[in-house]
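ok, trying the design again with the full structure, not the truncated one.
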């Protein structure tokens, strides 16, 4: 059976960057479920589908195709129905709407099926908000990354600016706070720490330190 490393936590806690580097170091696939939900949100917005379940949404999701394509640089791009949406899914509008679409059971079940299929085929480092509790509850390794709100807001602010999106820091902070609340209180697959997950407070940790912590924990358990 493939080995699964589950990394959960709220937005801007360092999940994606840490998971990507851990996957590279281990020679595993990096499965960014947050990016997948963002891509599904982008697709729904482009189709004009409202944030509610409907026969139209169900039919649309059946044909939704998401694929991660590795690059020679070690990065990967996300294809939505064959189209590169790696940058587009980070747009502010997607950030504002992703929690609402992600809470819909139809969306979650469709992406869950895709994620589990990938996990059945490859060793993966998978990150998101319900990996250790819902997607891969039997994952061999589980981590839960957290960080102070102010730290996360500054990280997301700098990330957005580097991608050409100029938003005030106060707005970024409020969006993260709202997303935290929505993710942790939603009925289906809420954000929460798995009982057997290792907590990691990244507030004052560099990315290399986060990566080393995860790698060392895995290596001592193998």
């Amino acid at each position: 059976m493939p080995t699964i490393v589950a990394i959960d936590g709220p937005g801007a806690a360092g999940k994606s960057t840490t998971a990507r580097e851990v996957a590279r170091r281990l020679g595993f696939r990096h499965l960014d479920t947050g990016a997948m939900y963002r891509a599904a949100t982008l697709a729904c917005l482009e189709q004009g589908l409202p944030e509610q379940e409907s026969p139209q949404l169900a039919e649309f999701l059946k044909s939704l195709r998401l694929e991660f394509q590795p690059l020679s640089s070690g990065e990967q791009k996300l294809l939505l129905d064959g189209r590169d949406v790696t940058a587009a899914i980070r747009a502010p509008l997607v950030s504002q709407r992703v929690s609402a679409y992600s809470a819909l059971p139809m969306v979650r079940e469709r992406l869950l099926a895709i994620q589990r299929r990938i996990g059945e085929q490859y060793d993966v480092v998978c990150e998101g908000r319900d990996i250790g509790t819902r997607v891969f509850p039997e994952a061999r390794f589980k981590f839960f990354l957290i960080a102070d709100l102010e730290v996360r807001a500054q990280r997301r602010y700098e990330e957005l600016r580097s991608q050409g999106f100029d938003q005030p820091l106060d707005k970024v902070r409020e969006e993260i706070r709202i997303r935290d609340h929505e993710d942790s209180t939603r009925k289906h697959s809420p954000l929460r720490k798995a009982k057997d997950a290792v907590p990691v407070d990244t507030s004052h940790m560099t990315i290399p330190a986060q990566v080393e912590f995860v790698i060392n924990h895995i290596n001592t358990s193998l």
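Keeping the full-length input from now on. The longest helix spans residues 105-121.
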